[in-house]
Design a protein that fits this description.
Blueprint (H helix, E strand, L loop, with lengths): L2 E3 L16 E5 L3 E7 L2 E7 L3 E2 L12 E6 L12 H6 L7 H15 E12 L5 H8 L5 E2 L5 E7 L4
Parallel strand pairs: 1-2, 1-6, 2-5, 6-7
Antiparallel strand pairs: 3-4, 7-9, 8-9
Length: about 160
């Protein structure tokens, strides 16, 4: 089993943050420190591979499972904690960036593989994301603000 987390960030939703089947990728490597209710918090972004989800350096059909949890914010101050921790998408190009990223995830996904997509609707509705990527999930959470959706190999 080969797994790719294409936007791993600080691996927040992983129970096992060093899962041995998984390649963790992110566009950056850094340690973030911040104050939260008088406590110092640390978020460490330490991917195995530094790369851009829109143009990955992996061969076609490499992974059985691809996890795609891209940034979901388009409005956040450059110094805001949320922007630093999660990253942001460009206000003018987010549709194209998500399209490129989704299809890169599809490219590196094996024919019988699964793409697990996570999206938070705080600033961009999920329906607009589906319109941008031009592919429908086979199943997922339809009610909450944070959507987990499953895709199989889509054809362009």
């Amino acid at each position: 089993m080969k797994i790719l987390d294409a936007c791993c960030g600080s691996r927040m939703f992983w129970y096992e943050r060093n899962e041995p089947h998984t390649t963790y990728m992110d566009i950056r490597r850094e340690v973030l420190r911040y104050k939260d209710r008088q406590l110092e918090r640390i978020a460490e972004i330490d991917p195995d591979v530094i790369g851009d989800f829109r143009n990955m350096d992996f061969a076609d059909e490499t992974f059985d499972l691809v996890i795609f949890d891209p940034p979901h914010l388009i409005k956040a101050g450059k110094e805001s904690w949320l922007a630093k921790k999660y990253g942001t998408l460009d206000l003018m190009s987010w549709q194209n960036d998500l399209y490129k990223g989704f299809w890169e995830c599809q490219r590196v996904l094996k024919d019988n593989g699964i793409l697990l997509f996570k999206w938070n609707e705080e600033q961009i509705p999920f329906r607009d994301v589906i319109k941008a990527i031009q592919c429908q999930p086979i199943l997922g959470d339809k009610k909450s603000k944070t959507k987990w959706s499953v895709f199989i190999k889509c054809k362009k």
